[in-house]
UniProtKB/TrEMBL annotation:
Organism of origin: Phyllobacterium bourgognense
Record-given protein name: Flagellar export protein FliJ
Coiled coil stretches, renumbered: 85-119
Lineage: Bacteria, Pseudomonadati, Pseudomonadota, Alphaproteobacteria, Hyphomicrobiales
Keywords in alphabetical order: Coiled coil
Length: 135
């Protein structure tokens, strides 16, 4: 195994690992988005419950203090989720940039290997031509 093959294999392994890390960060971000959407949906339902209290003939089955307490709790959860989402986006961006860098280095290595092969072929051809003319 040549040094170029080892480098190529190393880059391919690193790229595979980085793709897994990126997928993990994407999954975490989608989980946080789903959680935030669920909280928003719950808040909408709580606001509807609160508004239903003022509808004529409606019977309010959830006391206002409980609704307000849950809305406050959700507000706190949303703030925490927002912080986690910022961190998750930062991690995803970092993983994406690292993956792009590794793929770029792999392309550069492939170009270097290709140039070296062409140079070797040119040297071999020149040696062949020089050897033929010497006879």
């Amino acid at each position: 195994m040549t040094m170029h093959d080892a480098s190529r294999t190393s880059y391919l392994g690193l790229i595979r690992l980085q793709k897994l890390a990126k997928a993990r960060h994407e999954l975490e971000l989608s989980r946080l988005n789903a959680k935030q959407a669920a909280i928003k949906e719950e808040n909408d339902a709580l606001f509807r419950m609160q508004e239903d209290r003022f509808v004529v003939g409606a019977t309010a089955f959830v006391p206002v203090p409980i609704i307000l307490k849950r809305l406050e709790t959700n507000k706190s959860l949303q703030a925490q989720l927002s912080e986690h989402m910022v961190e998750a986006k930062r991690n995803l961006l970092k993983a994406s940039r690292t993956l792009d860098t590794l793929e770029s280095r792999l392309r550069d290595l492939a170009k270097t290997i290709s140039r070296a092969e062409v140079a070797d072929e040119a040297d071999e051809y020149m040696g062949h031509l020089l050897g033929r003319h010497a006879i």
